[in-house]
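Q&A log
Question type: sequence-to-structure
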Amino acid sequence: MDTVTEKRKKERKRQLTYRLVGSALLCASLFFATVIMGKADVADSGVDFKAVGLYLCASTFLMGVYEILSFVHHRAKGNGYAFFHLIYAALFVSAGVCAFCARFANLCFYAGGIVCLLVPVCKRVASMLANHTKRNVVSNALVGAVNILLVVLAVSSLGMQELGDLIITYIVSLVMLITCLFGVGALALSNFNVELLKKIIRKTYAGEIMFGLLLLIVAFSMTLTMVESDFTRFGDALWYCFAIVTTIGFGDFAATTFLGRVLSVVLGVYGLVVVSIITSIIVNFYNEVKSEPEADEVPPPADADALPQEPAPSPTEQDDEETA
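Response status: OK
Response body:
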């Protein structure tokens, strides 16, 4: 029991360290990617590849370190496809070297950007190899096709001079930004138990209740669009109803008619009741499920004093035994 507990503590500590360090690396890489996009926005006289190349070099090197960290983490968990992270790291480092060489030749920035765009394609291929389900293969194939189109667009921008410089800069910075955001999201939801959430929603009927709330929001939004002069679009009314249900209250829209205010009050009270009830039910059910002993846990041995004892023989039985 103690050995299992110690292993779990070490595993949780290792996962926490991986998430913290990985998130820091991704956020730093995300910062440099946003700087690259900002440099492209103000590039009226052309892209300064010397400055942009340094930022791309920093961003890709940080991503390379993150992929090496991911390789160590997944290798320790016994993942057979962990070596793919070494391939990603090598691609990111190669892109960083090319981006650094952009100080001497603009063509090096193109080479580094194209290598960066190849990383998402490799990730989609690795995901299809790791999971052969039809849904996963189709989704990754679609995303991979989009990534390939971006690579083709980046390659075709080589002969467009200043326009091509802007295109490659935007594409590379956007792909790096999305890659970092997805990485941070994956780390944040790494311990999120989807199956447990499905079980909670199925047992508590939370899905049906939230679906009813969604239908009510849509119906009230359509009504407010017709009765309120300020809501000229359905999207504005939908945004207003969302702010009421979530009790955010941005204040950019307000109901002025009597019917609009009545609907707002009804929707606000209904939203408060439904959200509070669903939240309490889900939290209580989640605590009950988490408090259940896991399958691999060995129950502690019972106290010897608490075990049932055989009744002591009576004096009559002792006399019978002596006589026998």
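Response note: The chain has eleven helices and no strands.
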